[in-house]
Design a protein that fits this description.
Blueprint (H helix, E strand, L loop, with lengths): L9 H27 L12 H9 L6 H7 L8 H12 L4 H15 L18 H5 L9 H26 L7 H27 L4 H27 L11
Helix pairs in contact: 1-9, 2-8, 2-9, 4-5, 7-8, 7-9, 8-9
Organism: Crenothrix polyspora
Protein name: Elongation factor-1 alpha
Keywords: Membrane, Transmembrane, Transmembrane helix
Length: about 240
């Protein structure tokens, strides 16, 4: 294999390009998933500071259950059932109203997944107290943050190692600038995960979550676009055309 993307033969170009195209699709799907889950934390489509604050720090005036009903669980109930649950939450999530009206909805729609002993370790909603404690948004728990942190650190680091490996063969940028670009994803990744924990402690750090996420996306697009451009569009007189 030759030393730059411009000089590589077609086999390596196809190998690297296929990976870059698929990983870009995966990155786009991850962004869409964030919009459909965390981006609905405040009940409105689109990622905002409020979404970040509700997801990590919590909001004592807002219900975690209401957040889910307006977000990732919205399609699991009919509009009438969802309205009944939200109204019940707004009225204080009383036990009497639960027994009379809400329990039937929970048993029909929720307990199929939220049952005792579920291997995914999600709460058992057949028990009233488990619903009551989630009637206020408390943000991500320490256990949840720990789980998400180690998954995020390992998976995103591997993604940027692979994309960075390809980008390292580019030749269009000064070496110091290229090395800076190669290091930026890891700095933004460390900032991203750290900002979750900081936002859990203080809502003002929510801006760091947005900044680090945007930074990761911009660096990804920069490395991705330069790599593909140099492989297929940039000309090099020494390119081996025999591959």
């Amino acid at each position: 294999m030759n030393s730059t993307l411009r000089q590589m033969n077609s086999s390596f170009k196809c190998l690297f390009s296929g990976y870059l195209l698929i990983i870009a699709l995966g990155y786009a799907m991850a962004g869409l998933q964030i919009l459909m889950t965390s981006g609905m934390a405040d009940g409105q489509l689109g990622l905002s500071i409020s979404d970040v604050v509700y997801s990590y720090h919590g909001n004592p005036t807002h219900s975690l259950l209401e957040t889910k009903l307006n977000g990732s669980m919205q399609d699991k109930l009919s509009e009438t059932e969802r309205t009944q649950l939200i109204t019940w939450l707004h009225k204080g999530a009383k036990k009497k109203a639960f027994d009379l009206e809400i329990k039937a909805i929970i048993d029909a729609r929720c307990v199929r997944c939220h049952y005792a002993g579920n291997p995914s370790n999600i709460p058992d909603f057949s028990v009233f107290d488990n619903l009551k404690v989630r009637s206020v948004t408390q943000g991500a728990s320490v256990a949840t943050l720990t789980r998400l942190s180690h998954i995020h650190l390992f998976s995103i680091a591997f993604i940027f190692f692979s994309v960075g490996f390809i980008f390292a063969f580019s030749s269009g940028l000064p070496i110091k600038l290229k090395n800076t670009v190669l290091m930026l994803p890891y700095l933004f990744l460390a900032m991203d995960v750290s900002s979750w924990w900081l936002t859990k402690l203080d809502a003002h750090f929510a801006w760091l979550v947005i900044i680090s996420g945007v930074g990761l996306g911009l660096v990804f697009m920069l490395m991705w676009s330069i790599s593909l451009y140099e492989m297929w569009f940039a000309r090099d007189k020494t390119t081996d055309t025999r591959g």
